[in-house]
Amino acid sequence: MRKSTDDELNDTNGTIGKLLRNPKLRIILLIILIQVMSVIPFIITGYTVPATIMVFLVTILIIFIRPKGLNEAYPAFIGACIIIIMGVVSYPNMVDIVDKIGGASITIIATIVMAVVLESFGFFYWAALNLARLSKGSGYRLFWNIQILCFLMTLLFNNDGSILITTPILILLLKNLKLMPHQKIPYLISGALIATASSAPIGVSNIVNLISLNIIHISLYEYTGMIFVPATLGLLFMSVCLFVLLKKRLVRNLPKMDHEWKDNFISKKLNMTDSKVSFENKAINTQFMFKILIFIFGLRCSLFVASYFGIPISVVAVAGSLVLLLVRWHYFKIGFLDVLRKTPWHILLFAFSMYVIIFGLNNIGLTNELVHLTKPLVNNNIFNANFIMGTLISVLSNIFNNHPALMIGTITLQAMNLPVLTMKTVYLANIIGSDIGSLLLPIGTLASLIWMNILKENNIRIKWKDYIGITIVVIPITLVFTLTLLYFWVNLIFI
User: Which end of the chain is more exposed for a tag (fewer CB within 10 A), N or C?
Assistant: First the structure.
């Protein structure tokens, strides 16, 4: 029997009612309303420039606040849609954007897929537990081992992935070491700072670094040759500064780990059916994990070889992730569905949307103004260029987040028509400002925003004053030290 019109209307209203009761959907609708209403007055009066700036500011504000833990891709995408509808960014611009961010996004996604695969058979838990064992009951050794873990995770994968991987593991590790809440803070903050800053030495550890590489036309191996030494020494300097500053707050002697928890820490993560690897044997466990680690390191090195020979690094990254998936299937009979589910595909949308908004700012003349202001200061002096642009990007990152700050800085740099070596040096100074200088405030990077959200989900409260009390001392001197090293390294090797 066919439903009456009233019944159909009631069904429709019921469906709409259910949708509106979804908290996530309500937040998204509220964000759309806020972002649209903030620009309507400017659009009606025909003021495109302030409308574009308002879209950028409101989008960044919502990303900072992240109401109800909302994914940052939503406000970025809504902002990008508004920019496109206003006609500030054209279709040819969007094609250009896809071309610029495509390879970088695929490389980062492939890297994260590898991290998801490794997480599925407990690789990171194995690494963390072994670092805890190597600490031998010393809180000071634990500090340095956490620094090593976070540095390697970012170097082998990327900064956002490193935060997502290491933070929950460190929380679990510190909890089972029975540390008090205030005793956990130095370890968590120092680990997050190193994990985020460690994207500077190699370009493949940060999606924005990769995108800007493509814009400036610097190859990956050239980038690494110019920045790896100064950036790595800068990170070591940061770790030393953190240790000196936090030494009195670190636990001197760690409580003994619960033996039952220690024995089960890995095995619970290795509950694999039909496994061809017997993890009951710790020697086999360690041998297998080291083989995987060697493969990941070799794959990372192959990206630089591919860059040298002009092979797209995204192709090598995808091939490596596929090999790792096949290895997992061979040993553990695990398919691909968990990877599809756990991979943060929203990164692609976020990168595209933020770049659309930044392109909009470029099209309304923002970068021309920045070129006019900064070019006379950086044109003929690499030392001045190094420090002025590195500091400028640091300031912009802490106000607007390092993703848009580095994008704006890179587009501005491209428009300056500087001598080649000066342009490359200034670009690397921008990277240092974006990856290290941005850490002054906990809103300076997307990775630190993710870190804060993970802490909140685990009921760990770190106040801004706790964070800034550390970074206000460590970050400025690390920024100056690293920029100084970059200047002398470039002059020593490349001039």
Answer: N
Cα separations (Å) of 140 from 137, 240, 259? 9, 12, 21
Report how far apart, in Å, the C-alpha atoms of 153 and of each of 30, 161, 179, 337, 466 are: 37, 8, 24, 24, 25
pLDDT tens, position by position, 318-338: 999 999 999 888 888 888 888
Specify the DSSP element, H or E, that contains 325: helix 313-332
Supply the pTM of this predicted model.
0.84
CA atoms within 13 A on the CB side of 61: 10
Tally Cβ neighbours within 10 Å of residue 248.
8
Tokens of 205: 């550890």
Give me the count of residues in the chain.
Answer: 495
Per DSSP, the three-state class of 364 is: coil
Digit-coded pLDDT (tens) for 205-243: 888 888 888 888 888 889 999 999 999 999 999 999 999
Distances (CA, A) of 370 to 53, 202, 248, 377, 402: 15, 27, 44, 11, 17
Tokens coding 193: 């700072």
Question: Could you report the per-residue pLDDT of 122-170, keeping only the tens digit for each?
Answer: 787 787 778 778 888 899 999 999 999 899 989 888 888 788 888 888 8
3-state secondary structure at position 22: coil
Residue 493 CA from chain centroid, whole number: 30
Per-residue pLDDT at 361: 92
CB under 8 Å to 374, separation ≥6 — which residues?
Answer: 388, 389, 392, 412, 416
Side-chain-facing half-sphere of 390: CA atoms under 13 Å:
31
Q: Please, where are the H alpha helices in 333-445?
A: 337-342, 346-363, 366-378, 382-400, 402-415, 420-435
The SS3 of residue 218 is coil
* Predicted local distance difference test score (pLDDT) of residue 257: 65
Q: Are 117 and 157 in contact (CB under 8 A)?
A: no
Left (φ > 0), alpha (ψ -120 to 50) or beta: where does 271 sit? Answer: beta
Give the mean model confidence (pLDDT) for residues 185-197. 95
- 3-state class (DSSP) for residue 138: strand
| Per-residue pLDDT at 432 | 96
Q: Which of 81, 70, 84 is nearest to 28 (CA)?
A: 70
Rounded Cα distance between 390 and 393, Å, is 5
Q: How many CB atoms lie within 10 A of CB 401?
A: 24
**Around Cβ 316, how many Cβ atoms within 10 Å?**
20
Query: Which amino acid, residue 169?
Result: I
116 vs 110: CA distance, rounded Å: 10
CA distance 366 to 48: 13
Q: pLDDT grade, residue 14 (50/70/90)?
A: low
Joined together, the tokens standing for residue 453 give 């959200």
